[in-house]
Write a structure and sequence with these properties.
disordered N terminus; alpha+beta; 175 residues; globular; single chain
Length: 175
Amino acid sequence: MSKLLTGLWMTFVLSGCVSPLVKKDVTIEVHFTYPDGWEILENMNSRVGNLLSIVKKEPGSSGLCNFIWTENDEINSNLDDLVDIYRDDLKARFLKRTDEVQFTDTYSGEFNGIKSRQTDYTLSVNNIPHRGKIIVFIFKDNAFMINQQGADKHLNENEEDFCIIENSFRVTKVN
């Protein structure tokens, strides 16, 4: 199972993001509002899942928010295992370009009122300190992973933007 998720994660990281997933005669749609100054970087789907990535578009700014989701019956629904999979993958990818990635222990949290498991992380990209958060949860029969990241110098404005994204997040099923 971890190979499936790691493969899905790497497919999305290397090739893009997602739109609604059609599977079992149900379309899953993820909706949220992103603030001015953000744009969709990639929107991709595959037979195993979806990826939607938004970034800040202004020169000199930083901010990234990735949404990955797949039907829950395709994966192990142990949230701590999902956090570990994404943590290990992120660590492996960033260690090639940074000195070190540091993660907090996994903790319980919420994403727009949905119970979740989360971990925070810090790293340096091109000698610029960054911090991020990985959030995983099961909602409407789908497993979600959200990765939020930005440079420390943009922390306050990114936090405000991430709150706008989170507070507007909703999922609908369309038959």
